[in-house]
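Tokenise the fold.
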Amino acid sequence: MAKTNAQRQAQYRKNRETAGDDGNGERRISSFVSTAAALALGRLANRYGVTRREILEKLLTAADEEILTTLDPESREWNEYFGITAQ
């Protein structure tokens, strides 16, 4: 029996959890942003000839990496940043 559109979409979303080049999967982000932010995202993507997704990924991972380079992995701040609570 053929799958419904809803069943195909559900399977696609489930498969995304393990997709990606690194095998670490992908997560869905759904959020409203200001018009100014959406237009800026489009301009950046257009300027660099990449998708909006690629721009978001680059901006987010760069900001995260900048913070990580300032933190000692053995510090309380590191644990707080990763949401690790003391045992």
Remarks:
- The CA atoms of residues 13 and 28 lie 9 Å apart.
